[in-house]
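[audit] Reproducing an earlier prediction to check determinism. Same input, same settings, fresh worker. If the tokens differ from the archived copy the diff job will pick it up downstream; this log only records the rerun itself.
[audit] input (274 residues):
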Amino acid sequence: MSAKAVKKIVIRKSLADVKTSYYVRAALNEDRVQFFMQVYDGGGEIELPTIEAETDEMVDGRHRKAALERLGRKMADFEVVPRFENPTELMMEAYSSNVGGALPPTAKDTIFLMKQFIESGMKTKELGGLFAPYYPPSVVRRYVSDAYSAVNKSRMQRAVSAVIGSRMTVNESATEHNVDLDDLKKEIGGARRKNRRTGLTEIKAVASARYRGHSQKTQSLLRHMLDDFEDGKLDEKDVEAIFKLVEKFNTTAVQNLKNWRERFAARKRSMQEQ
């Protein structure tokens, strides 16, 4: 070991104080979160998540943080790394850590990250250069192309929605969302001919149906539990164990919603920077 080896800086912080303004994966991997929960719950040791000095921004360890939150932990140890020059450096450090980790980024994760850089105004050459150390040139070109296609598709969809929702004129929407006016007119005509339900309406309908189904199943489970208790099939400890299990699932659902809200806030900021 070098005599000049840098000593790690470790601090104990409230999980609530750790910021997650940037994301490099399209979504958390549920199996990975469950794995960390089991290890933490069993008293095992895991490499510390890292945060940025001065800002307390999460750099690496979002799955670990999610696992700790679901377990109800309030405090945790973090390794502190020097502050980065800009968000791009922070995000690429997080991405690099994932590349060399147990759960490498998927193509979807890579395109998700590239989209954020495109939305921030990064040019194609610079974007390709960031990922050149990780993939062959042909793979980088394909990812960059897919990312640009996704960004353009998203812009067009928002432009169409703004016009159909009567929030903007066609000309205003084309300018606001940086899309070709003629292409926008074609997309609006196609959307009106199809007469499809809006994304919001459809998502709300699906969410309502799923929530009702989940709620009904939970109520049925608890009714059967109470019946079995009265019939002597379950004792008080059994009933308490079931209550705790249901409470755990509900806590996890609330925490998942919080994580998705944080992810939404980060994506909204990124898209507003276009």
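[audit] rerun output stored. Observation attached for the diff report: The mean pLDDT is 89.
[audit] end
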